[in-house]
């Protein structure tokens, strides 16, 4: 069964970090797109994120308190079934980058030398 659910994180989402996350992953941030694709057609949003190879999209919305939220339909046929963990990790990496830039710290990324898929952000203070 398909349904749209929120991608919960411990802190509040930051709009600039969401955009950085998309840039880092080569995901398309569709600013001003008011509908995102999911199993039952389209659902209202303020912006959307398109992930290459996925039929469905991630919606960028504001909740009742005016906080940014990311929502998606994880139904298998939509191509987003396994994106939740990657999105959370990518958001954390983007947070480190944006924070380092804001504080004028130097940083660089290191990827796994054996291709396992982890990344490390090294910040020099």
Question: Which secondary structure elements does this structure contain, and how are they paired or packed?
Answer:
Blueprint: E1 4-6, H1 15-25, E2 28-31, E3 35-38, E4 41-44, E5 47-50, E6 58-62, E7 68-73, H2 83-102, E8 106-111, E9 119-124
Antiparallel strand pairs: 1-7, 2-5, 3-4, 5-6, 6-7, 8-9
Helix pairs in contact: 1-2
Largest sheet: 5 strands, antiparallel
Major β-sheet strand ordering = 1-7-6-5-2
Gyration radius, to the nearest Å?
Answer: 15 Å
- Report mean pLDDT, rounded to a whole number: 87
Helix content: 10-25%
> Quick one: how many beta strands?
9
Backbone shape = globular
Compute the separation of the termini in Å: 48 Å
Low-confidence stretches: none
Number of separate helices: 2
Strand content: 25-35%
- Helix and strand content put the structural class at alpha+beta
Supply the number of structural domains.
1
Helix/strand order, N-terminal first:
EHEEEEEEHEE
Can you tell me about this structure?
- The chain has 125 residues and is of the alpha+beta class.
- It has one domain (4-124).
- It is 25% helix and 34% strand.
- α1 crosses α2 (83-102).
- The model has no long low-confidence stretch (mean pLDDT 87).
């Amino acid at each position: 069964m398909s349904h749209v659910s929120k991608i919960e994180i411990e802190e509040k989402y930051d709009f600039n970090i969401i955009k950085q996350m998309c840039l880092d992953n080569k995901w398309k941030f569709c600013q001003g797109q008011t509908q995102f694709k999911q199993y039952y057609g389209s659902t209202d949003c303020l912006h959307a994120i398109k992930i290459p190879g996925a039929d469905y999209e991630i919606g960028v919305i504001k909740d009742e308190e005016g906080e940014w939220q990311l929502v998606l339909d994880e139904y298998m046929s939509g191509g987003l079934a396994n994106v939740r963990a990657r999105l959370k990790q990518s958001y954390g990496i983007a947070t480190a980058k944006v924070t380092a830039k804001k504080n004028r710290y130097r940083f660089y990324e290191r990827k796994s030398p054996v291709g396992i898929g982890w990344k490390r952000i090294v910040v020099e203070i």
